[in-house]
Amino acid sequence: MVEDIEKTNMNIDNKFIELISHDDTLNKEQFKILDLPFPALENWKELALQKEVSRNDANMLMMLKGKLALTAQKQIVKNYLMVLDFNNIKTKKTEELKTTKVQEEASTSTQIDENHEYVRIYCDGACSGNPGKSGSGLAIYSNERNPVLLHGAYEENGTNNTAELNALHQALTIAEQTHSENIISIFSDSKYSIDCITTWAYGWKAKGWTKKSGEIKNLELIKSAHSLYEKIKDKIEIKHVKGHAGIEGNELADRMAVHTIKAKNKNYEFYSYNQIQDVLSLTSY
User: Which of 64, 225, 257, 275 gets the highest tally of CB atoms within 10 A of its CB?
Assistant: First the structure.
C-alpha cells in the first residue's frame, strides 16, 4: 500500500523561514522546492510567505538547511527520496524531483535552449579605503550554467562610487554585446550608480550636464554609462539588490571586485574556478 500524505499542508510563515534559513538566505535546492528563482531575488521572503508546502517538503527544507555545496544538496534530496520510497510514501513534489533528477542525469543539454537564453549580470565594486585602491567585479549567468566571472577596472586612487559605476558600466557593455530575445537583467547593490545612470542623468543632461548644488562627480563615467543605457534600455532591466545578503551572484561579484584590488588589473579578465564555494570563500570587505 502506498501512503499519500500530500493532503497535510502548511503555510510558510516567518518562523519557518527563520528555521530553514542560513545567513538569512536559502540554498539552490531549497528555492527549487519552493518554486522560487535562484539566484535569490531581493524579495524572496515575501514570495515564500505566499507558499504552501506539504509536510514532506517541509521536512526536506529543514534537512537542506545550511551553506552546502550543490553536490551535497542534491545528495540530501536523493537520500530523502530513497527514504520515502522505502516507506512507500509519495507526494507530488517528491515525484517531480525524482523525475527531474532522472532527466538531469539522462541529458544536461536538454535543459538549456540557446534560442531562449536568460542572461543575468551581477556587478559590484570594492574599495580599500575611500578614497583608496578600488576594483570591480561581475558574475554573468546564462540560464542554469555556472556563472562567468570577471574582475578589473583597478584604480590606485578610486572610491566606492567609481568602483560601482565602473562595474555597472561593464555590465551595460556586456549587455549591449549580448544577443538575447529576452530581457537581460542587471543587478547592482549600489542605488547611487543605478540612480546616476537611469534617473538623475536625464535632469543633468537637460541642463548641459550641470546641477545647482555644484560639481557632478564622476561625470565622464556617468555620461558614458548613461549613453550605453539609452541605447539598450529596451532590452534590459536594472534592479537593486541588497549587498552581503547571501545572494550568490552579488556575493561572487563582490569577491571579484576585492580580487581586482589584489591583482591590480585595469583591463577585465576572466577568473577561473572549479567550485563556486571556492570563490565564495575568498576575501570580502
Answer: 257
